[in-house]
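Reopening this one. Same input as before:
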Amino acid sequence: MLSFEESGKTLLLINHKMQKKEITKAQWVKKFCSHTIKNIASRTTIWQDAVFTPRFADWDRILAKFDQEWKHVWTYVHYDFGNQKWTTPLNPRGFGMENPQSFCVNAMSHAREALESLIKRLDKSRL
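Same output, byte for byte:
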């Protein structure tokens, strides 16, 4: 998940460079430090490369929020305020998914796709 987020940050930076836009401190804090915005950047870039159009207008935002929530469930000791209990990567009950292996495989797949999209754009930006 961290690789997916950091790919998103790099994709945002490449877009700014290609558009010859300066990045202000406020933009850095708002865009480049937001996990959700970085996840959206990675996901929408992967979708562009796959020529995929989501059925729902806000699907990228919904999935980015979902990714962020699951990152907490599977990688951190986390207090689940809704269920009033602590959860760990070994005890994620109550979140609807109870298999850390499937989450990790899915996260690695997203990371690979994001890195492939990133490499493609880096190659284009060097031209």
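So the earlier flakiness isn't reproducible anymore. For the record, The mean pLDDT is 80.
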